[in-house]
Specification:
Layout: E1 4-5, H1 7-20, E2 25-33, E3 37-45, E4 53-57, E5 60-64, H2 69-72, E6 76-82, E7 85-91, E8 97-98, E9 105-106
Parallel strand pairs: 1-6, 2-5
Antiparallel strand pairs: 2-3, 4-5, 6-7, 8-9
Length: 107
């Protein structure tokens, strides 16, 4: 089981945490929503929860709750800039379908 980051995503997280002045990594999970079933939930982590599964890649810790892991196991997190837009993108090998807007997915 693993969660990984591209160099761009790792750099973004490290730079943001440094600018922010606090935080220990990235928190990744999913919630039920949208037209396809699930949506990614991503936040900066300030603390560790007892149930957290912790992955480390490129010097960044990624915290995942046990319920989300089966849906996102093997996911690579990227950070993409397109014009004025910038966002984290997810390459999830478990995805069977996505909605047209790209906000939700099914497994």
């Amino acid at each position: 089981m693993t969660i990984s980051l591209t160099p761009a995503a790792a750099d973004r997280v490290k730079n943001f945490l440094e600018t922010r002045g606090q935080g220990i990594g990235l928190r990744l999970g999913v919630r039920k929503t949208g037209c396809s079933g699930f949506a990614y939930v991503i936040n900066y982590a300030d603390s560790t929860e007892p149930q957290d599964l912790i992955f480390e890649d490129r010097g960044v810790k990624v915290f995942v709750d046990p319920a989300s892991l089966p849906l996102i196991d093997g996911t690579e997190i990227d950070f993409v800039k397109q014009g004025l837009n910038e966002a984290f993108k997810f390459r999830n090998p478990n995805v069977k379908g996505e909605c047209g807007c790209g906000e939700s997915f099914s497994v």
